[in-house]
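Page 42, continued from yesterday. The earlier attempt failed because a stray header line got pasted into the input along with the sequence. Redoing it now with the clean sequence only.
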Amino acid sequence: MFGTVVVGLGIAGLARIRDLMNPMPSSPSEHLKLFGFVSRRNLGKINEAQQISLEEALRSKDIHAAFISTENISHEETIRTFLEAGKHVLVEYPMALSAKAAHELWEMAEQKDKVLHVEHIELLTEEYKQLKNEVAGKDLVKGTLHFTGHVLDEKQAGFPAFSGIARLTWLVDLFGDLTVTSATREEQKEKNYSRMTAHFQTANK
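This time it went through. Structure tokens are written below.
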């Protein structure tokens, strides 16, 4: 069995715990064993999963990989900590709040001979696969992708563009490398409203 720990208990972290404790029959998850979860809050147990300290998770020889589901701002430090401890890492996107930090983490994982995987489950859905089939072989003339969500705490989530980073991954996967040609941001703090509009160009313009 391959020992795991879940770090962070937001929506993604709770889903990880649920799926690790109830793996689909004949799926790779059946070979994973959840040894516990790490949280800043004192929670004790969740669905029979035991809370452990960060130090225990790093020290344990039974834990081979960490699933990181914390706030965006803490991803980089948490990844470094687990890689330094010799653990594989799966992290929810974005991996870091800068490209420089992300490249450094990739290099560190290679040096440690560990897997560092950024999770983007949407790319594996049937809906996305269908979309990819529909655009295959076609020339993009012009398109719009509209994404809505709640207003994020910038101190925890990072610059607002990160709330839509997953959709940028869609576009790059569908159409190749993109260049930002312009971007604007509108804010109405009294209404707790924020909107970012970005224009991109493909390699063949």
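Notes: The longest strand covers residues 178-188.
Reminder to self: strip header lines before submitting.
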